[in-house]
Amino acid sequence: MTAMKNGIVKIERFEDYHSFDEIIDVRTPAEFAEDHIPGSINCPVLDNEQRIEVGTLYKQTSPFAAKKIGAAYVAENIARHIRQTFHDRPQGWKPLIVCWRGGQRSGAMTLILRRVGWDAQQLQGGYKDYRRLVVAGLAELPPRYRFKVICGATGSGKSRVLQSLSRLGQQVLDLESTACHKGSILGVLPDAPQPAQKMFETRLMTALAGMSTDKPVFVEAESRKIGLLHVPDVLLASLRASECIRIDVDFEARVDFLLRDYDYFLNDPHWLDSRLDVLGKLHSRETLRRWKDHVAEKRWRELVAELLENHYDPLYARSQQQNFSRFGQPENFTSDSLSEDAIDALAQRIAAA
Prior knowledge:
Layout: E1 2-3, E2 8-10, E3 22-25, H1 29-34, E4 41-42, H2 48-60, H3 63-84, E5 95-98, H4 104-116, E6 121-123, H5 126-140, E7 147-151, H6 158-167, E8 171-173, H7 175-179, H8 197-209, E9 217-220, E10 225-226, E11 229-230, H9 233-240, E12 243-249, H10 251-261, H11 263-266, H12 269-276, H13 285-296, H14 300-323, E13 331-335, H15 340-352
Parallel strand pairs: 2-6, 3-4, 3-5, 5-6, 7-9, 7-12, 8-9, 12-13
Antiparallel strand pairs: 1-2, 10-11
Helix pairs in contact: 2-3, 3-4, 5-8, 6-15, 10-14, 12-13
């Protein structure tokens, strides 16, 4: 971290963002929602509508007209943040102020806070410089780790095993939780939208940066995409070259597990029916019609069993053999149950191996 003049700081290491008492992101709520530095709070100096208004004036009228109304909005918003958000900050408070490029928006907030007497620092290069650190980190960090990739057919409880491993104190990179998606073609989570790609990458970088390279990192086998999100190329290549751990579970136990794990589908048959449409290009009309009939008649066990036999299991067999170079020599762990106790026992065996 390099201190510049007039309260401007250059940050070149990811961990240096922890050197501040607080990180204040002054971009619009829309910009902040797409991605932001972990732990930062959003105190916009222009809201979404105000930024559009100022930008339109700049292009269609004149820079002077845009700056005049923009200055009024910025002053009003900064005053509100001082009254409502920063009023109880002590004199020794040292915040980092972030905008898109480290320009006028963060400059205005930094100037006022420093005039008050706080040691506010403006991030040189703004969010764009932070984003470059994330991209560079995801290109450099993954090969340093010893990943252990949990493989297993759909319904083998891989995500639950990862969670149990985490409770045991093992290092875990949970890609599906980070992506808010269960990974499969029917893995959409109701009422839990996926983050933007940039936010997904920020969360991955944050997780990796907090892990030790001296211990293994357990992760679930994933395809290139998790829902709408792409697993970064270097991370994906590292996973595909890593040691594999295969979980083999009895078929009926897998069906039982999926009926529990996807119970929200059963509570909304119409939504499930619409989700099955995404399989239309992969299976015949007759097959899709039969599956939809299962939904209409609430024949859940028949539906899950046929989806496993006709779609997920063949897909899994092809994918693992093609994409994971060490899949042919995995450590194998078997179980005839996926109860909570059985999953915990499975995780303990894997951790001890």
